[in-house]
Structures are given as structure tokens and as C-alpha cells.
Amino acid sequence: MKEYNVVILGATGAVGQEMLKILQERSFPVRGLRLLASARSAGRRLAFRGEEIPVEEASEDAFAGADLVLGAAKNPVAARFAPAIVGAGAVFVDNSSAFRMDPNVPLIVPEVNPEDVHLHRGILANPNCSTIITLTAVYSLRALAPIRSMVASTYQAVSGAGAGGPIELLAEAEAIARGEAVQPRVFPYQIAYNLIPQIGDEAGDGYTTEEMKMQNEGRRILHLPDLKVTCTCVRVPVVRSHSISVSVRFDRPVEPAAVRAAIAAAPGCRLVDDLGAGRYPMPLDTSDQDTVFVGRIRRDLTDAHAITLWCCGDQIRKGAATNAVQIAELLDNA
User: Fold this and answer.
1) pLDDT tens digit sequence for 80-97
2) Where in the sequence numbering do the catalytic residues fall?
């Protein structure tokens, strides 16, 4: 297997540090490693395979000699440095949304469309975390019948908003226990003991940018340009791991037993579905690992052609860092 000179752009953020961890866990063939971040993070040192690697300030000339760049920075940073990365001859696997809808940039979930990695022109995009978790859960069902539409509700953990999310949740819970007022900063409202039914900015027709990602990205990944998805995204007071309720509509009826069998055999999935025994996916069980748990599989009582299910997955790992490293692993055969 080829060895890579790897750069992590945005190495000190939650996803960047998780990428570092995943590279070690999966024994990715790293020949050399550089860690890039903003000027305020330069000089920090992060552990990798028994060494302390210094963090450098990101700049256009920092990618010389790189084979692979894993992007864990925000959209403006990804867009700024992408030309320098490609110009240096490296492949850029980017976790931001800067390139997800670019028709020249493959959008990859390795369990779903690994063949699309061959189409890259130097940049590969990592989908939205909820999109990755949902499509990993439902993709195997396409073998049972064509998928026509989906109705989804996401229950997204506070860590999806960055490292400050869990800190704010804990601080608010402690303040409330002391009888003190809370002062939200990361979220627009108190998140402790609350739900916030808005993630992202207004995108038109009453939807948010986060909600439209499920349809727009799903169409590209599944190669279903007419796929219809209606989605509601909710921030919940859970530290880690996103949960999604989704009803999948097919072009004909599908039996729940066939759905269970397909998911049990699907890569990246684990069937956890026994309502009588109280076994179903939960965020606590799916945190800090890479498998998407799927359960609560049942007929949709509003549509004879639909199946409803519930899935959970770690949005920092499978929904971001692990998916990016898995994409990089596909490059060896591209």
C-alpha cells in the first residue's frame, strides 16, 4: 500500500483532532505528517504515534510535498487553500461544505458510492454528518426496491456545533442547578433541558440550510437527481452522536423483515431492533465508534410503500473524521 505525506488542515479543531486519532486507529500509511491551523494555534503540539507534532500556521506554501490533505476547517479556509493544495499535486479530502455541490467534486460515502472516488480532479468532498449517517443506514434498502422519497427528522448533538457546544450545555446545566440564569453564546437559546428546532440559516420555504443538505447531498451521493426529501433538524441536549428518524418511501411495498435482513448485512451498519426487549439505537451506545446503529424498523402507517426506522451514529467520527479517512483509503485503488 502506498505511503502518504499527509497534511491536516484545521488540525486543532474537534474534527481535526479526531482525524489524527482515526489515522492512528486505522493504521493509515502515513510517511510524513504536518498539522496546520490558524496563527493562534501555531506552536501547539499534538501526539501522533508516540511523537509530538508541532502545529504550524496554514499558508499557501505549506502544502509542498503533500500527497493527501484532510480538511477540517471552515468553508472560507477550505476555499482559500484548495487551489494551493491541488497545485501542489495533493488530493484534498475536505470536510467543509465548500465543494459539496460542485459537480466536478465527488461527494463520497464509502459504503454507498466508493466508485465515485475515481472521478476526482484533486478534491473530494465529505458530506454533511447527518447525511452520512442516514445514507449509511438506508442505502442497502435500494436492493429491495427503488427509493422515491424520504421524510427525516434529525436530533443533533451539541458537539456538532463544535467544541464549545458541550461546554455550553454543561455550564448551563450547572447554572440551572445553582438557580442562576443562563447566558447562551454558542446556541441562540438555552440548550440545557431544551430543544432548538433550527440548525443553519434560513434557506427559503421555511427550511434551513442544514435541512436542505439531506436532499441536495443525497441526490448526488445516491445518483437520484429527482429524490425528494423533507427534513427537520433539531439541536438536542445530547453531548455526542446524532440520531435520525426517517421514513423511506419505495416504488412498491417492502416487508420490515426484508429491511431488517438488508440492514443486518449492510457494511457500516449494526441492526439493533427489538422493541420488546428495549433494544434500539441510542446516542450513548453509538458514541466514540464508527458503526451506524439502526432499529425501530416498522411499516409507515401513512403510506403502504414506506418503511420507518431510527438510526444513530457518531457525527464526529463516522459523520466526519472517519468518513474522510475512509475516502482517503479508497485512493489507493483509484
Assistant:
1) 999 999 999 999 999 999
2) 129, 242
